Amino acid sequence: MAFRGEELIFLLVALGCLAALVIAFATWLAAKATKPAARKPPRKTFEHGRRLGRAAKPASTEDALRALRSTPVGDITSVAPVDGRVDIVVSRKRTQPCTQAAGYLAGLFETAWAHEVHVAHPQCGGEGAGACHYVVTRAPIVSGARAAEASTPGSGGAPRRSPRARAGRG
Ligand SMILES: [Zn+2]
Prior knowledge:
Elements: H1 5-34, H2 46-55, H3 61-67, E1 75-82, E2 85-92, H4 98-113, E3 117-123, E4 130-138, H5 158-161
Antiparallel strand pairs: 1-2, 2-4, 3-4
Helix pairs in contact: 2-4, 3-4
Residues 98, 121, 124-125, 132 line the site of zinc ion (ZN).
């Protein structure tokens, strides 16, 4: 069986095209396979800290205070819950940024109180390791008669008196 000149050239070109396709497909597969390995660890932002705080799932102020005994954002060296606010000092390592700690406290107490919170930061330990002072308060309610009787965090019945969902009878 002998090929004529044109047939041979056609065959070679066809084989070349097929080889190119196979190489392209293999390269695509290889790129796809290496992508998940390149995933970066989460950046230690406010939002990341907030997710960590929410993940502790505190149902009350007491739960939140218990969660503060061991946090991923730093060592809590002082906690002072007083009427409507919690004063907290966080002793951070270099790897525990200030904004992450603030986010953690926001996530923790907004979950515990089922209410928006405000995190003030009157004293900062700086960019590296250091002690940061935060003050967590309930964010003011814009309107509604229930605002006046909103519970005080840290007081005995706070969890029971927290605002309920609209459909609730509370
Ligand atoms: Zn700070």
